[in-house]
Structures are given as C-alpha cells and as structure tokens.
Specification:
The protein has 13 helices and ten strands. By secondary structure, the chain is α/β, with parallel strands linked by helices. It folds into two domains: 7-156, Rossmann fold (3-Layer(aba) Sandwich); 166-343, Dehydroquinate synthase-like - alpha domain (Dehydroquinate synthase-like, alpha domain), CATH 1.20.1090.10. Strand 9 and strand 10 form a beta hairpin. It is globular.
Length: 345
C-alpha cells in the first residue's frame, strides 16, 4: 500500500492513531462538524499540541481569502515541516486542507477524515486539492496524497437527508463508469441504504472508494483513464455554480445530460438510458433544472480546466458500466442537450 491508498473504514474515532511523531497538529474543520465531533476526535488523538481552525460551512470557504487566513494561522502558531494537518469534514474542508498542506512550507503531512458520503467515496480519494476563483471551480490546486484516510461510517447518520442524497450521486457514478452490477445492488438495496443500514453503508463506501483507488493508481495525474471520473462534471459544474445546487445534485443533472447526448449519438440504447434515469428518480435525485440560461452554462463549460485547444473534453457512456472520453463533440450538440433537459420541466 502507498500513500493515498491506505483507507480505514471504522464505526467511530476510537481506533484513530498516528504512525509518526508530529510537533504540532492542526485540525481544519467547519463549524457544524466542530460542534458534532471535535471533542471526541481530539480526545482520541492523545496529543498535547493540537490546534483547531474552523471555517464557515459551504463552497464559499474554498477561496483565496480563507486559504490565506489559514496560512497566517499556521505561521502565528509555529507549525513546522514536522507538523501535521488533519481535515475533518466534507469535500470543502478536504480540498482546502489538502491545498494548505501541499503548499505550507512546500508540503507537510496530511490526513483526511471525511465525514460526508461525498467526501468518503470521492473527494478524499486520489490526492486532488483545490480552491475556487469566483465562479470557476478548483482552478487553483495541486495533486497531494494524504498519509492515510480514516472513514468513520457513522458520521453519515448525522447528515441532512439532502446531503446524503447528494453523496449518492457520486456513488451511482461508479456503477456507470466501472461496474454495471453495482447499479443492480443500489437498486435492490435502496431501502437499506436510505435507512442508513450500517452494513449497506460500509459496502457502498468500500466499493466506491476501491474503484476510485484502482483508477487513480493507474493514472494519478489525470492524463487519460482518471478523466472517466468526470462523468457529468463538465455539464454539472456550470449548474452547480450558477444554480447554487449541491455538487451531487448538479452532477446527477449533468450525468443525465451526458446520457441524453450519448443516446442522441447512438452510443447507448434506450433501455440503458431509461434504467439510469430510473435509478436517479428512485433515489429522488434531480435530472432536470430551470432558471439558468443554457448559453451561460455552455460558457462555464468552455472555461473548464479539462478542455484544451478550444475543444470540449466530455466523458460519455458507451455501454453498460462503460464510458469513453470524446473531444470532437460540437458546441451546437451540447447546447441542444442542455436545452432539452431544461425544457423537461
């Protein structure tokens, strides 16, 4: 096992332990997670020099100002190259903490403790860090692997329902890009999953993160294979920023657009398209939107960091549990699909 591959899935924080000595530990969290877990977490670390920095919940904290404030806090409190940064929270906390850890004194050790489903199955895995610049998502960032990832599965039981469902959008994605049989599991075990049955949660988290780890090990810097993880993201990021939707909800809409485009181009058949639409509906995930100008979404897509040489780089399904990367999709085809999905209201 290498850095970034080591994941512990536990039912609490009691088994959390450090493998190295650190002169100081900085826990970066948000105010909501701090209220729920910080006392229990700090108690289990069993370290004297533990500092806590809490940010406001939400995407707005992934910005240069907050990043700068944390760096100043690190300097004022004497964090050194022998210090450790722990992210305790969801994707925003993890992305921001990772960027701080990768750049402070040219890099200090990092551990992720993701507390949301989205972070446990996606954002904490693979070493991506990042902050936003205005409406442009993750345009500043690094690849930086954590020492390990510690998943407390029972933190999922304190999530708001919408936040849990948002994470399920990324869980479904793994079946769409890598394992079509996983889709069948999600359908046949829907009640247990939505009831937060512990064994079902452990299964979907373990299955999802192992798929992502396998992909990342083959292509850490996203030169080819890793791009398939972006299914629905090129469409979805525009909706997320302009429509102010959660990441998972925006990605479920974006994935529907990708499937609609693939259907129009005859990459997939109608049965598969209908099956995927039904999965999203069964989990009460959105597949349409309103109130956003289609050309505005297209403009955001043009500025996506995954594109190059004025070409759109889109991940589209090509069969059951299979996707491919296309760079020859025409602008009018993309705009047409956005309009179709929007007008389904």
């Amino acid at each position: 096992m290498e850095k970034g591959d080591i994941v512990y899935i536990e039912k609490d924080f009691e088994n959390f332990s450090l493998k190295k000595y650190y002169d100081k530990i900085l826990i970066i969290t948000d105010k909501n997670v701090k209220k729920l877990y910080i006392d229990d977490f700090v108690k289990n670390i069993k370290y004297d020099n533990v500092l806590v920095y809490d940010i406001e919940p939400g995407e707005k904290s992934k910005c240069l100002n907050v990043y700068e404030d944390i760096l100043k806090f690190c300097i004022m409190n004497g964090l050194s190259r022998k210090s450790l940064i722990i992210s305790l929270g969801g994707g925003v906390v993890g992305d921001l903490s990772g960027f701080v850890a990768s750049t402070y004194m040219r890099g200090v050790d990092l551990i992720h403790c993701p507390t949301t489903l989205l972070a446990q199955v996606d954002s904490s895995i693979g070493g991506k860090t990042g902050i936003n610049l205005g409406i442009y998502k993750n345009v500043i960032g690094t690849f930086y692997q954590p020492e390990f990832i510690y998943v407390n599965i029972n933190t999922l039981k304190t999530l708001q329902k919408d936040e849990f469902l948002s994470g399920l959008s990324e869980v479904i994605k793994y079946g769409l890009i890598y394992d079509c049989y996983f889709l069948d599991y999600l359908m046949s075990n829907k009640k247990n999953i939505l009831d937060l049955d512990e064994s079902s949660l452990i299964y979907i988290v373990n299955k999802s993160l192992n798929i992502k780890i396998d992909i990342v090990k083959k292509d850490e810097k996203e030169s080819n294979l890793r791009k398939i993880l972006n299914l629905g993201h090129s469409f979805g990021h525009g909706i997320e920023k302009i429509g102010k939707l959660s990441h998972g909800y925006a990605i479920s809409i974006g994935t529907h657009m990708a499937f609609r485009l693939a259907l129009k181009k005859k990459f997939i058949d109608k049965d598969y398209y209908d099956k995927v639409v039904n999965i999203y509906k069964e989990y009460n995930l959105p597949i349409t939107f309103k109130g956003i100008d289609s050309k505005y979404i297209l403009d955001i897509m043009k500025k996506d960091k995954k594109n190059s040489y004025l070409k759109f780089s889109l991940v589209l399904p090509v069969g059951y549990g299979k996707v491919d990367i296309f760079e020859d999709i025409k602008e009018y085809e993309i705009l047409s699909v956005i309009e179709e999905v929007k007008n389904e209201f």
